[in-house]
Amino acid sequence: QLKYKMTDETHKGSLMQPFLLLAKSSHGAALSRLIQQVTELPGIYKFGELLQMPNVVELSNNELFKKDWKLLNLFAFGTFMSYSANKECFPELNSNQITKLKLLSLATLASKSKYVSYDEIKTEISLTNTRYLEDLIIEAIYANIIQGKLNQQDQRLEVDFVIGRDIQPEKVDYIVTILDNWCKGCSNAIVSLEKLTEHANNMKDTKLQQRKVTEKEIDEVKNFLKTQDHLVDANLQSQKDKARGLRNLVKPTSRTK
User: Fold this and answer.
1) Please, which of 80, 129, 190, 231 could form a disulfide with 125 given CB 3.0 to 4.6 Å?
2) ∠ CA 185-171-57 to the nearest 5 degrees?
3) Residues 125 and 144 placed together within one structural domain of the fold
């Protein structure tokens, strides 16, 4: 299953490659059309590499195409809720882009918790219809954006796997700090385990020594008891021999008529 996920991620990355090549020589309106395509096309869910290209960054300072740059940022880092609250900042989205943004928003929710309630999802992507919500989750599962199952009884999504989204540059230091703390925690855990192992080995050696001492004492007691048994047997035999000797010395008295 892990191999399948890795293969799928590689396939999704390959879908972006032609657009990355085109973006190197594209500017203005051509780059705007390219951004529209990558934000609409199914299977492309990572946009960070495209965002870092110098000619794409230039769009942020171009009033004519600034909304396209914001659109690309929206699909890289944002959610449907952030789009709904600032629609005037972006170009008008078509139905495919809206669906894709909702799928990415679902991925963001799924990355925060193993159990995501239907109510949370409805709030995030502005839904009221449960049937449409479940259809969207099923679409996300078939697209390998998430893996999990629908729990209709508890009205929640149970997440087993979710794709990672692009990381905002300002959050990199925070993530590095978290990973650094995690590494330190792992190191401390290893030290604790080594100490526990050493203590366990020492206890084992102590127990073995105590066992040897106990076994030696038991052997000594056994040997002592065996010696006592021999002495008792020898004493009894000596008493029997003395008694037999006394009987032989005493002659029976004859009776006269």
Assistant:
1) 80
2) 150
3) yes
